[in-house]
Amino acid sequence: MAQPQTLPEDHDAQRALEQRSLRNVRALIDKLEAEASAEKRTRNRAAWIAGIAVALLLAGFYGWAFHDRAREADGRVIVIPAPQQR
Length: 86
Prior knowledge:
single chain, mainly alpha
């Protein structure tokens, strides 16, 4: 059985369709990569903000805890008697 001959126009149309399909796939991949990159930046930014918030809370708690202790010691004089000599 003889194979039907394809015309050069058919090859050109097929090639144009393949190229358009490849461009569409590349555009989709670029879009997905851009979205992934943006999501990563958002996660990093959120992690930094959370870390700074935790550090500020710890610093505030530390200052509050030791400020109260320092205030309690104000005005107190601790006298340590000298050892008695015999």
